[in-house]
C-alpha cells in the first residue's frame, strides 16, 4: 500500500468515526406519562443540558385521557434555563407536546394544572458529543500511525531477514 492510499484510508475511517459519534442535531424524543397526578413513566429516565427535546406528555386519570389540562415546566433549582416551550395544553387524546432545550443543569418542576407533579433533574454531560468524536478520531489516527510504524520498521526488517534465508 502506498503512503497516499494509507493516508486516504485513514482520513476516510476518521471521517466515518466522527460522523458516527457526533450528534445529529435532531431533537430527542422524551415520553412522560402522568397517571392520576403522578409520573408513571419517563423515557429516557434522565435529561441532559444543551440538547433539543421534543417532550410528549400523556395525561390520564383512571385510565382515560385528560383533555385541556395545562402541562408546565418551570426552573426550580440550579442554573437551568428553559429555552422554548415551557407550557402546553393536552388535546382530546390527553397528549401535550413541548419543544424545549435546557441551558445549564439543575431541577425543573413539572406541573399539571398548577399542581406540582414531580421534579425533573437536568444533568451536565460528562463529555460533549463533539469532544468524544475528536477523541475517537485522535485514537484512530494514533493506532493507525503506530501500526504503520511497526510495519515499516521492525516488522518489515524481520520479514526481509527471514525471506533471505
Topology:
Layout: H1 3-21, E1 28-35, E2 38-43, E3 47-48, E4 52-61, E5 64-65, E6 70-78, E7 81-84, E8 87-89, E9 95-103, E10 106-112, E11 115-123, H2 129-164
Helix pairs in contact: 1-2
List keywords for this structure.
165 residues, alpha+beta, Immunoglobulin-like, six-stranded mixed sheet, five-stranded mixed sheet
Characterize the structure shown:
There is one protein chain. The chain is an alpha+beta fold. The radius of gyration is 26 Å and the shape is elongated. The chain has helices spanning 3-21, 129-164, and strands spanning 28-35, 38-43, 47-48, 52-61, 64-65, 70-78, 81-84, 87-89, 95-103, 106-112, 115-123. Strands 1, 2, 4, 5, 7 and 9 form a six-stranded mixed beta sheet that branches. 33% of the residues lie in helices and 42% in strands. A hairpin with a 2-residue loop joins strand 4 and strand 5 (64-65). The two termini are 25 Å apart.
